[in-house]
Structure formats: C-alpha cells, structure tokens
Amino acid sequence: MAAVLLDSRLPLVAAPLAGGPTTIALARAVAAASAFPFLAGGDKDPAALAAQITELRAALAADGSAPAFGVNLFVPQAPPPDASAIAAYAERLRTDADALGVRLDPAPIHDDDAWRAKLDLLLRDPVPVVSLTFGLPDGADIAALRQVGTRVLATVTSADEALAARDAGVDGLVMQGWGAGGHSAIHDSAHDPVVMPTARLVAAVREAVDLPLIAAGGVDGPAAVRELLEAGAQAAAIGTLLLRTHEAGTSPTHRAALADPSLTETVLTRAFTGRPARALRTSFIDRHGAAAPTAYPAIHHLTRELRAAAGAAGDAQRLHLWAGTGWRTAREEPVARVIERLAAGV
C-alpha cells in the first residue's frame, strides 16, 4: 500500500500559485474546507516566506484546523548560455515597454531564487511537506529535508522525470499534465510538455514508478477529480479554479481577463519568463512568443517591470494571464464553494 502523502480529509490540494494569488486567507480557507493548502515559496523573499509560514501556522491553530500544509520551492536553473539573445529580445519588446513607460534592462539577471536561504529556513523550521518545481536539486538537499521530518515531493511531467525523481530520493510526485495553468514544471525548459490527458500521464507514471502521486492539470470539475483518482492519483491539485475566489490575491486585471469572453483560448508561451507557461492568448504572445528565448529566470526578470506596469494600467494584452485549459469554470466565489463542488468527484 502506497504511503499517504497529505494529511487532509479530502483528496484535494490547492496548488501553490506564485506571484500573489496564494494568500494566507486562501490557504486558511482551503484547510477549513478539509483540503490541503500550499504556500508559494517560489519567487519570494526568504523573510517573507518565513513570515507567511509563521502566520499560517497561527491561523490554522486559531481555526482548529490540522497544522498540515506544504511549501513549494523553485529549483535553481542553469544560467542562460547566450546573453545576446536576451538583449535582442529586450530590443524586440521596446515598443511594448515604451507604451507602458517602462525601460527594459538588456543585461541578463540570473539568480537561484535564494535557494540556500529558503532551504536553511525549512531545515531550521520544518514544515510537513515541501514540493519542488522546475527540476531536481542535489540529492543531499532532498535527504536533509527528509531528515527533519518533511515529506518531499517532486513535480514531474513525464515518466522519465518521475524515474529521476525516484532515484533522487523523494517521497512522492506531483504529476503535472499539459493543461495546467502557469509555468510548466518540465525539467528541461527547452522542450514543451507532452500533449496527453493528465489521467493518461498518471497511469503511465504509475506503471514506471512505485511512488504515491498527486495529479495536477485540467481539473475543471468533479468529473476530472474522479478521473484522476481512478487513474491512481492519491489527490487532485487545483490551481486555476482558485484564481477568481474571494480569498485569492489575483490582480484585478487578471481576474477580469479570466471572465472576458473576448479571450477564447490558452496557449503555452515563453514570452513572459523564458520558460513554457500556459496563459490566455493575447496579442503580446502572438507578437513575441515565437521569438522568446528559453532563458528562465533571465526573461522573467527582464519583463518583470513591464508586466507590473501592464497590470497596474489594466492592460490585459501585455500581462501574463496564467490559466489552465479549464479556466472557463473558474468563478467569483469563496474557496469553500470550489472545494465543496469538487468534493462531489471524490
């Protein structure tokens, strides 16, 4: 019998939504609804992450909820091989930047998302679960987290990645399907994730690796939850369905776009961050997506101010409107209603 990965009554997980949508209020509401919350540690200052962990623990204790939650981390990426490609992309984006009153710095910025500081934090102050996205760190880092009692999950997009994660010593997997919104967790960002229903990927990974797993991507209702559980997942993760909830920190421009009937499809693009990510299709993606270099986080840093200005100006066409294939079923409602509706598939 596979080990149980998560301590929650319902086999439902709130995916970590970096960049603002995941809030303490959202995580608290997820736990109160008997699902499992994650904090988004990626692209976040270590001190801010430490404060969120402390605040969530206190909130769960005050609510009488189980003190069970996870923290997601971005695994460091290799530096971009070609600085000239980033400078050329910055020049390409000049007209868009000028329209928003932003100056782009073509000098590449590369960092490891404060990996060591965040790891040290989680070793000093362990949390129940840590999930890893964008690849695998050194096996010693995984072992260190497990040594302090943390269950470590690796996010994978294929059976080959699942095998590598198993060999690295993780406790379980988050199997991310092609239809997931936001960044693909694919380990080699020069490639796109395989086009396959998430349930089929779950079945393929379960044949290859004897590890418990959570399934993510394309969860748009109770039928999708049921399908993933029947395929062998321990739980289903939801992300896009939470973006319009009352407790989410999603920006007003992003919220409005998710309900805009003129935006009719999602696409995978590197246009905003240099790593494949699923977003609502916009004119910015149409103009620049094919030219964007594979260079995360350098492109992420390059476009950061442009995206912030677009959001502040209500310019949805130049904003990274992360959304999965099931975005049409995201509603303006409390988190509890989302969990209640999806629980019908359990």
Q: Which labels suit this protein?
A:
TIM Barrel, alpha/beta, 38% helix
Instruction: Provide a count of the helices.
Output: 13
Which consecutive residue ranges, at least 5 long each, have pLDDT under 50? none
Report how far apart the termini are: 19 Å
Major β-sheet strand ordering: 1-9-8-6-5-4-3-2
- Tell me which CATH architecture of the largest domain applies here: Alpha-Beta Barrel
Give the number of DSSP strands: 11
Mean pLDDT: 96
The CATH superfamily of the largest domain appears as: Aldolase class I
Q: The CATH topology of the largest domain is what? A: TIM Barrel
Which structural class is indicated by helix and strand composition?
alpha/beta
Main beta sheet = 8 strands, parallel
DSSP strand content: 5-15%
Which class of the largest domain in CATH terms? Alpha Beta
Give the domain tally. 2
Shape: globular
